[in-house]
Each structure stands twice: as C-alpha cells, then as structure tokens.
Design goal:
The chain is of the alpha+beta class. Helix content is about 65%, strand content about 10%. The strands form two sheets. The protein has a four-stranded antiparallel beta sheet with strand order 4-3-6-5. The protein has a two-stranded antiparallel ribbon with strand order 1-2.
C-alpha cells in the first residue's frame, strides 16, 4: 500500500504543507504511521480523507464542523444539517455583497451627475441613497390612500357621462378637498430637503414647499442656513430620537 509524506499529500491535494500539519494538530487528519526518523506517513485512506476535507473546505464549512462530521459514527445524520446551515450562511453573504455592489453602482451613477466634486458630495449622495427606501415608503402610503379617492373620482365621471347623474361628483369633491389637504400636510411633514451649497438638511415652511417649482426629486427652495435659492434634493425626514 502506498505511503505519502506530508509534502506529497499536500501536493496531491493542492494545499500547503502547513495546512496538512494544521489538520494534524486539529486531529482531523492524523498520519497512519511515523517513520523511524519521525516523519509523518499517510495511507491511501488518509489521502481520501484529506480530499474530502479539502472538498468540504471549498464549500466553506468551518474546521469545527468538518471535525464534528468526521467524528460521527453516522455522518449522514448531520451532513444535511451542516450543509443547510452553510447554504443559509452563503446565501446571506451573497445578499450582503449584492447590497454593497448595488450601493457601489448607485454611487458611481450619482457621481457622474456631480459637477463640482468634493468630500461633502459623497456625504450628500450617501444621505440621499439611504433616504430612498424611506421615500418609497412615503410614496407607497400616498398611493394606497389615494386608490379609494381615485375609484370615487372615476365612478363619478362615468356616471356623469353615461347617465347624467351629478351627485357622485359632488361626493368626490367633498372627499377630494380634505384628502388633498391631508396628503399635502402628511407629505411635507415627512420629507426634508438637502441644500447643494452648504449641505444642510432642512424642512421649509408648508406654503413655500407647496407652491415651489419642483421635479420628481428636487424642489426650488431657499436654504435657511446659507440663503441659497435653487433646486434642493428631496430626502426623507429623519425620525426624531425619543
């Protein structure tokens, strides 16, 4: 039967000699025998065991889990559990890395729109990026609350056009006016604006915000900190700490 030295088994398995020695100290790959000169000698079974260890390490299983698996009389009873745990860990790692990749791509995209770049520019972009999810939630809330009002509106229009009935339209107007007032107050109480000049985040007065020119992501306002008057970036208002 073939015998392998530490260097030979390391070469056959594509690892370093130190790795083989480490597995020996951990008790998961003990050499079959020692030569008269004290050299570790590994058998064919040891080589097979080493290849199994390397395969499990490639899957990302930690040494402790591999040691537990190899010491089991019935390894089949724990392999599914260990692999399930490792799968969950790897999927979570992939999810976290994808989030980081998405943020990097978003940052690169935002940087292209910055004319006068500075360190503060990165801070502004980071603020708007972290605020996007909160803004989406605010917009979602407005959408859901607006659906019933929209249903009443189209019902009133259809009944007016087809049957000449006016009273549903009166009901819609009675509902739409207070709804519009509530929506405006809700919206402007939950958003703030980032000044592109001094990088201050502020909340304008309701009247100024309501009548200001705007785009889907900006609104033309006066910054209370530096008095800059121009388009400021819309962000979600930070929750006040209790």
């Amino acid at each position: 039967m073939s015998k392998y030295t530490t260097g030979e088994i390391a070469k056959l398995c594509g690892v370093t000699v130190r790795t083989v020695q480490y597995y020996d100290t951990r008790g998961i790959l003990v050499p079959a025998e020692l030569s008269e000169g004290g050299r570790r000698l590994y058998s064919e079974d040891d080589l097979k065991r080493m290849k199994i260890i390397c395969f499990l390490r490639e899957l990302g299983l930690p040494i402790d889990s591999i040691s537990q698996l190899l010491s089991e009389d019935d390894p089949g009873s724990v392999i599914s559990l260990l692999l399930g745990q490792q799968e969950h860990s790897l999927r979570e790692e992939i999810r976290e890395k994808k989030e980081k990749l998405d943020k990097l791509e978003a940052l690169k995209k935002e940087l292209k729109s910055v004319k006068d770049f500075s360190i503060d520019s990165i801070g502004d972009i980071a603020y708007t990026m972290t605020s996007k999810d909160k803004l989406k939630k605010i917009h979602r809330n407005l959408l859901f609350t607006g659906i019933p009002v929209g249903v009443v509106q189209w019902t009133a229009i259809i009944m007016l056009m087809l049957k000449g009935i006016w009273w549903p339209l009166i009901i819609w107007i009675a509902v739409a006016i207070p709804y519009a007032i509530w929506v405006s107050k809700y919206y402007f109480s939950h958003v703030a604006y980032l000044c592109p000049q001094c990088h201050t985040v502020f909340q304008p007065k309701f009247k100024e915000a309501f009548w200001a020119r705007h785009t889907p992501a900006t609104r033309k306002l006066s910054c209370p900190s530096c008095s800059h008057h121009g388009f400021c970036v819309e962000v979600a208002k930070e929750e006040e700490s209790k």
